[in-house]
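Hi C.,

You asked whether I'd gotten around to modeling the 485-residue construct. I have! Everything is below, sequence then structure, no commentary in between.
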Amino acid sequence: MRQIERIAKERLEKLERLEEQGASCYPSKIKPHQKVKEIILNFENLKSKKVVMIGRIRNIRKHGGSTFLHFEDPTGRFQAYLKRDRVGEELYQTFLDNFDIGDFVLFEGMLFLTKKGEKTLEVDKFQMLAKSLSPLPEKWHGIQEIEERYRKRYLDLLMNPEIKEKFILRARIISEIRKFLEKEGFLEVETPILQTMAGGAAAHPFKTHHEALDIDFYLRIAPELYLKQLLIGGFGKVFEIGRIFRNEGIDASHNPDFTMLEFYWAYADYEDLINLIEKMFGKLVENIFGKRKIIYQEREVDFTPPFDRVEFYEFLTEKIGANPKKLSDEELKKIAKNLKIPVENKPRAKILDDIFKKECKDDIIRPTFVLHQPIELTPLAKALEGNPKKAARLQLIVAGWEIANGFNELNDPIEQKKRFERELKEREKGDIETHPFDEEYLKALEYGMPPAAGLGIGIDRAVAVFTNSKTLREVILFPLMRPKK
């Protein structure tokens, strides 16, 4: 019998033994107790007083008639001390025979300091709160276990405190962003996840079916079109933080479901977005880290405004050694093929974008706005004043990660219709990631949308940078995984 199976069998026998003795190993009601953090902070006032504490046993050290152990609750770790002479022979033996690492236990007793100065609870009574039937792994963090870590995130969090800290930091980052936007006058709203048409981004959607209505729906690829309808309805500043779903491949910077922040701002333009982003990220980093500089993969990233700016075409020209505007379609495709970039059924603008992502993005470390991409890439954006081939658009790239994307929102319903018609033609040629022809959105635009700017921020990517993580799987609690066979 494998060792793990043997231990599991022994633990099940311990559970049955405790229940035969009349103990409830999974009680519904728990006695009032104090958190570890509270005990540590108020130790001097509580010393030599009786307290009740609970937690999961993390280690046990037996020494004949006495046993030391550490247990932890969500606020911290503490030491407990059981002595045969204090709890009695029978209870002491019950503990030795039936309690294991991983069990959740309630302890009652007196607080004292050991000779080494460690804050400790001398136990008078104890109670099982939840018996652990499988042993916790001794070693978990390593290359061989990387896939298993993501599949069993609960063990990853238990065995690797630094992973848990990443998700605590993630929650704080989202909280800080939310507080910043609310302070700037933005209203948090919610838009549908199930949509009759998947619009607002260049992405392939997941499809599902509603039985009662007997119609197909799509999981949203973006909340954009609904949020802009709120501008039409009279709201001036709105935002949403929520899950987005895109039927695409999985790699270090992509997961089929992820968290996105999108906000829309009436009577603003992309220059206003730039100023707001610089302010938001500067304050965010300072509030969390106490300064405006962080280290990502051994390189310093400085979030002190103003951020750098580069022109899309100029930067691309520098990297490939040729002006893309002067290259024929065949010359451009040849460059792409040499870089092992697929070109079949792709319009020129998307090939340019793919080359940029492969050749330029990773070289950008300091927060940098990449400006004025080809207008064909953004059918929902306004063209740059005086240059109809470029979009009034920005991308924020940090440490090689595309963090944000924003632009002046197209509010001309006639022009928007032409864009949708062009997208429809590209779809007929085989490009499945084109924007659908959305008549409902066009009708809404006809009622009038104010001049506006909008922005999307990939929360997972931002968190990856702030937590020094190489892949989104490190900052998504339960990343999508291929089922084990």
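If it helps when you're writing up: The mean pLDDT is 94.

Thanks,
B.
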